[in-house]
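Researcher: Batch entry, complex prediction.
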Amino acid sequence: MDRFEYIDARLFDGENYLKRDKNVKIYDGDDKTQFVDGEVVLTSHRILWGKPGDIPKGNVCLSLYLYYVFCIEEESGGVFGFGGPKRIILHLGPALPGKRPGPAVVSLYHYIKLSFKDGVDAVFYKALSDAVAKKEWESPTQLTSLTILSPNTSPRPSITPVNSKIRSGIVGIERSIEEQHRATDESINVAFKDLTKLMEKAKEMVSISKNISSKIREKQGDISEDDTVRFKSYLMSLGIDDPVTRDAFRSDSDYYMNLALQISDMMVAVLIDCGGIMSLADVWCRVNRARGLELVSPEDLLNACKLLERVDAPMSLRKFPSGACVLQLNSHQDEEVAKSTSELLEEVGNLTPVKLSQLANVSVLLARERLFTTERLGLACRDESIEGLAFYPNLFLDNMT
Amino acid sequence: MAEVVWPWQYNFPPFFTIQPHAETRAKQLEAWQQLIAIYLKSNKQSTMDIREASNSPLFNNTSINRKLSPESILTILEDMAKSGKAAPVDKSKNVWEIYWHSLDEWGNMIYNWANINGMNNTVCTLFELREGENSVGEEFHGLDMNVLIKALKSLEMKGKCELMEFDDNQGVKFF
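Model: Structure tokens for the complex:
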């Protein structure tokens, strides 16, 4: 019953009158309702129900969209079944949002019955099932002249259905899913089209940046030395002219080998800047930033880094006992790290990983590893307290008093 | 309670964390053992309950807000037990006897004292040993009864004395 809505008895654009019948009672499921002895009008889109005479006058009546109906059946009348079927059962889909108010807000039932006092007219039943099967509301509305049931009322602008795309039943759901798929497909295509364009532009970008740098070199007088230097450093950290890509190689091992070479080339300067050691996550970011658009996956990077020793790179991949992976310059040995850290400890008194990370300009993770390394070599000792982990100069071994 | 001269380590926060580095750890445990012995000696205390000990000033330095955890205390005591300076009293290793001298040392000390005081071949009660006027000023004066008996038993094993039971008291005869 909650699928019904109140509406003026008027036909929409493209809606056609099909059939009418009298003395019709509506049941909400199995329950009787106040809507008895009315007149039913079947159109290509809806079923209208009104008190006798209301519909021709265009007064407010009950309207049920046929798209709610997904199944129709006849109910045989009486216990003995004589006199032919008296009721039609309409099984309905769930009420859709945007529905106009109707006689009921909620209903226990997902079906209604139309009870015909004089028995179901076979012609009416056929027209109803045809209309439901035809789904005329799905075809684009044709511009037909406004049909008005009542001759007394003047023509008014038509009211288009609230939601002309609303569908019901399993077919409706399937169709809407299909439509969604198509839409996603399209948007993916569009997105990738953009990306390919961007890739094409990348080459231009590199040449533009080269241009700029050469122009800066020419105009050194106008721009301060500082700016030039800074801009150059940006460019340096930005560009790999010809990134090693997987497509260019036949086998993975070749690819990793070349990737390793490229990484070692570009990371040397960066590592020296950062104190000789950098976590693999940071390396990955730096490498990908330099590559621009030909990004490498973390796995490829890891595989390439494992090969760094094979290509005689000045750095190597190192895994700390804690599991942290870093790229470390070969010149950057544990002893030296420990020594510099312990000197820092003497200077400051005590260090937490966070404090060291700020002082030495490395990530907290690496600072932690540094402190552990220093401890392993007996140059620091730890202090675990509620305030966290801190390290002190190893006075146990130094103070032999 | 006697004042203890705290070693420098006592105000060094890492002292309250058992160090993972082997060499450092050895130094640290050594320092702790010395401190425990000094502390208990000055308090004439021979037993320690780990559950309570972590609140005593020995393991709890409020001035630097550091505390040795019960697990760490156990580590130290177990290390002490290896060198015979401590022994667990109960099976759950909560209560420990700490010997700031080893039992042998205690025994020898008492025997020497008995010799000097001409008590050979005489019987004296344990009460006399612990509380008597003669032993005032000796290290074993006021020593824990259990520790005293253990020390005397170790002496007995060497045949230097004999423990004997009176009605309600215990005595010892030195040879």
